[in-house]
Write a structure and sequence with these properties.
Low-confidence stretches: 1-9
Strand order of the largest sheet: 1-2-8-11-10-9
Organism: Paracoccus subflavus
Helix content: 10-25%
Strand content: 35-45%
Number of helices: 4
Oligomer: single chain
Order of helices and strands: EEEHEEEHEEHEEEH
Radius of gyration: 17 Å
Structural class: alpha+beta
Protein name: Sarcosine oxidase subunit gamma
CATH architecture of the largest domain: 2-Layer Sandwich
Length: 176
């Protein structure tokens, strides 16, 4: 697999593909959330869009009983979750190969995202994330800083999203 990093001339946006890691889809009933969180050593926020981090792992609440968890390869989260399955029944699926993550940063990162995203990403608080669409692709947008975002894209939609971002970057460069 190749990783790309693009910055053309004095472009106001940097687009990078982040190296893959462990990505898990978790479904657990709210009554069992705390037990599972303790076992994994990672808080599972209850507010949709909220994130929690510990030991290099990060959990994003996508719904009342749904989380996306990212962690370094080899993290022991699946084993820890399996150990408490009888007390906290859940579904934990490794979806690491399903998506890629792009990092968008720079003074035009918000503008680049809003070209094809109906969500008001400028209004997203730093430290939150949301499932939305970018043109026709379902994505998850993470706001890591005032001008720093991550966007999770299904691998099959990645060429389409990259092409749109390349067009946006070209237009930004032409406007300089």
């Amino acid at each position: 697999m190749t990783y790309e990093k693009h910055q053309f001339h004095a472009s106001p946006i940097l687009i990078e593909e982040i190296a893959p890691g462990l990505r898990l889809s978790l479904r657990v009933k709210p009554a069992h959330r705390a037990t599972l969180a303790r076992a994994m050593g990672l808080d599972l926020p209850s507010r949709v869009g909220a994130r929690a981090a510990a030991h290099g792992a990060e959990a994003l609440c996508l719904g009342p009983d749904e989380w996306l968890i990212t962690a370094p390869e080899g993290a022991g989260l699946p084993k820890a979750a399996r150990a408490v399955y009888s007390d906290a029944p859940h579904s934990l699926v490794d979806i690491s190969d399903r998506e890629i993550t792009l990092r968008l940063s720079g003074p035009a990162a918000v503008d680049a995202l809003t070209t094809c995203c109906p969500r008001d990403v400028a209004a997203m608080a730093v430290g939150t994330a949301a499932r939305t669409v970018f043109d026709s692709a379902t994505v998850i947008v993470w706001r890591d800083g005032p001008a720093e975002f991550r966007m999770d894209v299904w691998r099959s939609f990645a060429p389409h999203v990259r092409a749109l971002l390349a067009q946006v970057e070209t237009e930004f460069h032409a406007g300089l």
